[in-house]
Amino acid sequence: MVRLIKSEIFKLLKKLKSWLGPLLIMILVLIAFPLSIDISQFDLDKFYFSIIVVSILMTSFVATEGMFEEDFEDGSLEQEFLLEKDFYKLALAKIFVFVFLIGIPLALIGAIFSFANGVAFNSFAKVFLILSLSNLLLFNVFAFGNALSINKGAMLGVLSSLPLALPVIILLGSSIRTIQYGDGFISIIALMIGIGLLMSALMPLIISAALKTHID
Amino acid sequence: MFDLAFSNLHEILDMNGHGIYVWSVYALGISMIVISFSIAKKRESLAYKKK
Amino acid sequence: MKLLSAQNITHSINDAKLFYNLSFDINSAEALHIRGGNGSGKSTLLRIILGITTPSKGLVELIKPDLKISYLGHKNAVKSYLTPLENLELLFHDAELKHAFKWLDQFGLTNVQDELTANLSFGQQKKLALIRVMAQSSELIVLDEPFVGLDQATADQLKNFLAEKLSEGVGLILTSHIDPMIECIELDLGV
Amino acid sequence: MISAFIHKFSSPKSYVRLTEKLYPFFIVLGVSLLTLGWIWGLLFAPQDAVQGNSYRIIFLHVPSVIFAELIYFFMAICALMHLVWRVKLAAYLIKAAAPIGAMITFLGLFSGSIWGIPTWGTWWQWDARITSTLILFIMYLGVITLHGSFSNLIKADRLMSILVIIGVINIPIIKKSVDWWSTLHQPASISISGGSSIDPSMLYPLLISIIGLGFTLISLGILSSRSYIFTREKNKKWIAEHV
Question: How many helices, marked H, and strands, marked E, lie in chain B?
Fold first, then answer.
């Protein structure tokens, strides 16, 4: 497991495009949005959050695209199979590394921008926590979509994982409302952590089955 | 319970102004079912022919 | 010593039947050469032996469940955006890594060890991929067309390596349309 | 034991034999009940006190929405059989059912949104039921696209089954979360006047339409699954004997 995590970190850091790309897209969207509307007419802090939510959805999809494709195309999956006999650990390690290196920085960017747009300073930590947790969920979901579609393009990936991502988005949206209106934050965080743990444990199983079918 | 709810053909088609909605929905429904049956029939004869 | 036995393997993809009712054993210190024309299912048979592909019918039984296998298929399993050195460091540690560096030297790849693998020639990439098999200690070596793209000198090195491994008691399965020049049991899949 | 039992009764051969006998009954039953239900509903059932005549869409809408979900559950059972017991027929049935499910879900969505025009004054409302039906429609499209993307059909069958199973677990999650989201800022969705205590003069034609559409869809499923089985198993001996 340590071996896998180390090598995934090493590989991801070497691929600047896959690593920094999503972060830059996120920043770009969050800067572009206020520029595209008439700020004097809208109460930006009211719905800037929803732009953050949508950008999180998009960037986490972009970030996980090709998560397993490279290993599939170059034959690494087969080598991994000979070592471990399944892909549970690989999927777990990959998701962990992606969340750690892309998901959490994305959440940080989101939190910084929300703070810059009129959210009270003391809710910075809350926003960051919620965005990180929802990224954990989203990365699991999109890792599944990517494992199913591997080299068959984004359309299949979107169609197969979007229905799973939408409940996460709804959860994220309502948890952000709890920050804005100030109650139920703890229970929603507990819910998200619970779902996150459950998903992180089960998703790799399913991903492993899908990857096994792919190399078959 | 078994009385016609309308008194003439025009009323049936018009349905107090709602006819356009009701009939378009049923027209689409029926045609989709019919089309999918004909596609399935066609596929079946193709499958037989391939033998 | 028997390493694995394949019993009544039948496999077909969609409607195309690749092979029918194959049975064979693989023993240690023995080489099995799988021959056959293009599309006869050589690579698929290797993958069935490895347990990657599930055969349509039949069974591949590993006598020792945790048999250590090293394998090189059509795909090189090297990362094109890493250097050869980084690729090896990703795969091996300690003694094995030293061993891998030794082979890097023997294959004459030391002068390109810090270039990106993507910029290496086909043959150089193949050599790099072969190091995976050579530096690993294993009980069974499975190679799919290992001689393709290799120059004569490297092919000889590979042959010597395989002969040496065989004498050490390692089992070997390979497909090749070039005569491997090792004493092999032949399995012909036909056209 | 179980596996042997399942395989005996789920060979494509016995399925084709059985459905060949049932098909004529099912199609006659389905079409005649559906015709009866719709004519009754469209012409004889009384007007709704609140919505007027536009409510007559219900005789198409409600059966469609019911089968939109039922077909997915059916696919999920098949997917389980395919993954656990490797029943080939189950995968064929999923492949045949998915387009039918997509069609009927689309019909449910379309009729719902047309119904919305006279009722809400808008054809689309982000209402909980509509939203989850829309997601269901996307899920059907996902299943169809997935199977179409792979040339190795055994792989396609297995991946499709995985997706269907994940999807069926996801359905209650979607419903729950969408409900939760919509109660936060949406009024409740439309209901027939009187709610659950719907008048028999409207209920009977509705029930008949549901049963009729059910048999019609089953016949459609039989028809398309049979031709799919023929294409998939065309090299098998029993097909040659059968034709």
Answer: 2, 0
d(CA C30, CA C52) in angstroms, rounded, equals 22
In this predicted structure, the answer to whether residue C170 has a pLDDT above a threshold of 50 is: yes
Report the half-sphere exposure of C4 (CA within 13 A, side-chain side): 25
Gap between the Cα atoms of B31 and D141, Å rounded: 21
Domain that holds residue A159: 2-215
pLDDT, tens digit (0-9, with 9 covering 90-100), for A74-123: 999 999 999 888 899 999 999 999 999 999 999 999 988 887 766 666 78
Q: How far apart are the first and last CA of chain B?
A: 53
Q: What is the pTM of this model?
A: 0.89
Q: What are phi and psi of C12, to 5 degrees?
A: -140, 145
ipTM rounded to 2 decimals: 0.87
What does the radius of gyration of chain C's CA atoms come to, in whole angstroms?
Answer: 17
Residue among B6, B32, B46 whose CB faces D107 most closely? B32
Kindly report which listed range (A132-141, B5-14, C74-83, D137-146) carries the lowest average pLDDT score: B5-14
Kindly give the interhelix angle for B19-50 and D200-232, rounded to the nearest 10 degrees.
20
Nearest-CA distance from A161 to chain C in Å?
26
Q: Evaluate whether D130 touches D150 at the Cβ level (below 8 Å).
A: no
Consecutive H or E run containing C171: strand C171-175
The mean pLDDT of chain C is 87
- To the nearest whole Å, the CA of D77 is away from the closest chain A CA by 17
CB burial string A135-169: b at 16+ within 10 A, e below: bbbbbbbbbbbbbbbbebeeebbbbbbbbbbbbbb
What's the mean pLDDT in D16-31? 93
| Contact residues, chain A, for D146 at CB < 8 Å | 148-149, 156, 159-160
Q: What is the pLDDT of residues C76-88, one digit of tens each?
A: 889 999 999 999 9
Structure tokens at C185: 């049991």
The region that residue D145 occupies, defined by phi over 0 for left and psi between -120 and 50 for alpha, beta otherwise, is alpha
Mark whether B and D touch (3+ CB pairs within 8 Å): yes
